[in-house]
Amino acid sequence: MKKIAVLTSGGDSPAMNAAIRAVVRIGIENEVQVFGVHRGFNGLINGEIFEMDRHSVSDIIQRGGTILRTARSEEFRTPEGRQKALNVIKVLKIDGIIVIGGDGSFRGAKELSDLGIPTVGIPGTIDNDLPYTDYTVGFDTALNTAIDAINKIRDTSSSHERVSVIEVMGRNCGDLALFSGIAGGAEQVIVPEKKFTIEDICENIFKGKRNGKLHNIIILAEGVGGAQKLAKSIEEITGIETRATVLGYIQRGGSPSAFDRILASRMGSKAVKVLLEGKTARLIGIKANKIIDIDIKEALDLKSCFNEELYKLSVDLSN
Fold it and tell me: How is its activity regulated (predicted)?
């Protein structure tokens, strides 16, 4: 394998740049030419490809976002779009592709592999919604961003003796809400994986008041949605002033944490080595702190497994 390309696709996440840096430098270390693809699969279709060297990835490990930029490609979903991408790959004599992204990006990677292009994926998403890996690149940074916001909101919530509903990202996966709820000392965590009623929420709020709590922090996963609506319902039922905060895209930006930088570097290195071993249709992950690679179809077919033990801990700690 003499030439490989790397692209970022779908939503951006902190430490994507750290993964790109590792791919480029480990590739060059193994005497492989490394090419960057601008704007994900769209860039692959349109030939937005350029050779990278060690200098190309200098001073990027601390930067959020992705220097390769990213986009969602409807055209790549079509056979015609994939054929265009394949033609570009063949003309440039690219021997393998590394895709950094989430579930949708990996499905694109599988399509490339099915067309005969050796492909490896690195999980870059703050949602932590890929069951085959313990952590995705960017999750830890987003978690720390959420905790910082929770800490600040608690201060003003205590001053006014309010209820605060804080909505975090994560799509239909409750990990970001669950982890930030525990680490942020929230009174309640509401996730898509667990049923809840407004009556139960309000009962817990009254219980906290009776126990002398000055505030009540509720973490809401965006997969449940409706922070403003929930806050309004709580205020109407309890009579307690309730405010909603949607953290939104601040969770996707910012300088990546040390954990994410190291994780991305380990995964980027592993991705290059997997390609050099002649493997294809593989996804890189981490299990029990060991970097692994797994068949892409097997990984995408895995069902989500909610951490019941951690959820129970969040409930026990809030009582």
Answer: Allosterically activated by ADP and other diphosphonucleosides, and allosterically inhibited by phosphoenolpyruvate.
